[in-house]
Amino acid sequence: MQDNQILENIRDNELARNHEYSQLLCDILRSRARGKSPMALVRTYGCQQNVADSERLKGMLAEMGCEFTDDENDADIIIFNTCAVREHAEDRVFGNVGALKSIKRRHPSLIIALCGCMMEQEHIAQRIYKSFSFVSLVFGTHEIHRFPKLLYDTVTTGRRIVARGEDDGKIHEGLPIVRDGTFKGWLPIMYGCNNFCTYCIVPYVRGRERSRDPNMIMSEARGMISAGYKDITLLGQNVNSYGKTLEREKTFASLLTDIAEIDGDFRLRFMTSHPKDLSNELIDVIASSDKICNHIHLPLQSGSDRILKLMNRHYDRKRYMEIVEYAKKKIPNISLTSDIIVGFPGETYEDFQETLNLIREVGFTSLFTFIFSPRVGTPAAEMDDPVPYEEKSKWFSELLKVQEEIAAKRCESMVGERYRVLVESAKPDGELTSRTEENIIVEFKGSPRLIGTFQNVEITRARNWILKGKLA
């Protein structure tokens, strides 16, 4: 039997076992429910990859006969899918989990489960187990595919379960999905990370890079497009390294090309790109396709070569600007966004000024900005960090002011122009919120019936971060 046939059989057996546990849970959960059907709440913290994981958890819950609620008081099952990237996200989880204690006291049959990146950290999992006795199930990112069995075990034995698996290098395909949106969707193409930036916990909690089979990705993409999805974002910790773990190597640029050639009226995005792996081939592909958004999220983190080296980012300021200049040459209206960490250990004000200078030089559309947050288990957490938080906060404010000026100037330059936007939601005041392919928000008056459609809008005025317009 060929290796790929063996893998196919293993996958089919896992799916069959999952389905068996889900069917057993249908009756068990219905008997415990306070209403006609068991109600589940899945709350997601952190990145889009967590959102995609939660959609698969919801798919498995739906197979168990669950319906969904956003109200904790109505839920028979509550799952928090957690994020470990920043301390603030962890603090929110602990606070919100603690608030569930009173609900559990009123409804003893309530099942509370915690999963995701935080749970892959030993010290976090132990704190949950010791301090939150009302939490029944704890499982990490490598155990999501086993959720039906884990839930079955905890409800049938009454035991509290902690499951933190080792990275087995596998991708568990075929899990059911209940997507959060109807016209915007997330499509994971790979998992894990090999970069080991010194500040980042992701490689430790998500494991090594592994790419999905391109045929599975194409099948899922066709399904989303057929279902009417208009805005599809391809996900990976570093999409530019897609394909390196496949038997027959395939570049991200070629995968992007294949998806863009599927028939349908949709647009493609992707995140996140690591500068060390972004190729001219990828920029050429974006420039050549009407379906791929003219937007690249390209995390910079710092404009200082000294700090970039301490961060283990594997590129310098010169290389970053070479990418930017080529992108602007090939795609004149390219929108560049980025991540910036302020106050990395050892950073001086002079280093920070180099970051500000590069931000002005690039002219980013927007930035995701953070004050350095040490993560237990990363090298940066052990580095000497002499600059007080109060000083870092001043730098942070200075950064926000510079970026606000850049964004305001860009938005002002768009007044009078027409853009094709995807209408995303309606505001209480009757305005619609939409987004350009450059990932800029445009608000305009219109009927809620336009939500989920592409419209042409003329920009009438600009604010710092948001454009105002009218239907063209």
Account of the protein in words:
The chain has 3 domains: 3-163, Rossmann fold; 184-413, Alpha-Beta Horseshoe (pyruvate-formate lyase- activating enzyme); 418-471, OB fold (Dihydrolipoamide Acetyltransferase, E2P). Helices cover 38% and strands 21% of the residues. The chain has helices spanning 3-32, 48-63, 87-98, 101-106, 122-131, 147-157, 202-206, 214-226, 252-260, 280-288, 305-310, 317-330, 349-362, 389-413, and strands at residues 39-44, 67-68, 77-82, 111-116, 137-139, 161-163, 184-188, 190-191, 210-211, 231-235, 267-271, 295-297, 335-342, 366-371, 418-426, 431-436, 441-445, 454-462, 466-471. A 6-stranded parallel β-sheet has the order 2-1-3-4-5-6, sandwiched between helices. It has a 5-stranded mixed β-barrel with strand order 15-16-17-19-18. It is globular and about 60 Å long.
Number of beta-strand segments: 19
The helix count comes to 14
Give the averaged pLDDT, no decimals: 94
Q: What's the CATH H-level superfamily name of the largest domain?
A: tm_1862 like domain
Largest sheet: 6 strands, parallel
Range of helix content: 25-40%
Q: Please name the CATH topology of the largest domain.
A: pyruvate-formate lyase- activating enzyme
Q: Which consecutive residue ranges, at least 5 long each, have pLDDT under 50?
A: 5-10
Instruction: Give the DSSP E fraction (strand runs of 2 or more residues).
Output: 15-25%
The backbone outline, from C-alpha atoms, is globular
End-to-end separation in angstroms reads 61 Å
Number of domains: 3
Which class of secondary structure composition applies to the elements? Answer: alpha/beta
CATH architectural designation of the largest domain: Alpha-Beta Horseshoe
The CATH class of the largest domain turns out to be Alpha Beta
